[in-house]
Amino acid sequence: MTLRLHLALAAGLLAVSAPALAQTPAGGDTGGGVVRIAKPVTGQQVYEAVCQACHMADARGGVGAAAIPALAANPRLAGAAYPISMVVSGRGAMPGLTGNLDDAQIAAVVSYVRTSFGNSYPKPVTAADVAKIPHPVLGGGH
């Protein structure tokens, strides 16, 4: 092949792949179509990624297939143990999130909810506080 043909092929490949590269998410395509996204770290990030789908962006909850309680202006959040145990173990329509969130993420989201949406329970929750709550034993895989 001539140099001119090599350059033409390279230019063609670049032209074809440039749109795909521009559309690659920030986390990046790991190959095989699997895209990794950044792990939510702050309480707000965890809330937006995990909680707001059910509890809504304004944390006012809703009614649909199940009644989703409001987290906004919720006096049950005054004691940190209650919201921690709900996130760790779940109850009713609320799934336990221990397998999806680590103790630091749970602490961050509980602290965020307790200080947002009309709640003013300022004492932050720590990962050590979350670790004190009994965690369900997760089933093993194959």
Taking all Cα atoms into account, the compactness measure Rg is 22 Å
Largest sheet, order of strands side by side? 1-2
By DSSP (H or I, 4+ residues per run), the number of helices equals 5
Please identify which CATH superfamily of the largest domain we are dealing with. Answer: Cytochrome c-like domain
Query: N-to-C SSE series?
Result: HHEEHEEHH
Class by SSE composition: mainly alpha
Low-confidence stretches: 1-25
Number of strands: 4
The share of residues in extended strands comes to 5-15%
CATH topology of the largest domain: Cytochrome Bc1 Complex, Chain D, domain 2
The whole-number mean of residue pLDDT values reads 82
Biggest sheet architecture:
2 strands, antiparallel
Q: What's the domain count?
A: 2
Explain what this protein looks like in three dimensions.
With 142 residues, the protein is mainly α. It has 2 domains: 37 residues, no CATH class; 90 residues, Cytochrome Bc1 Complex, Chain D, domain 2 (Orthogonal Bundle). Helices cover 42% and strands 6% of the residues. The protein has a two-stranded antiparallel ribbon. A two-stranded antiparallel ribbon has the order 3-4. Strand 3 and strand 4 form a beta hairpin.
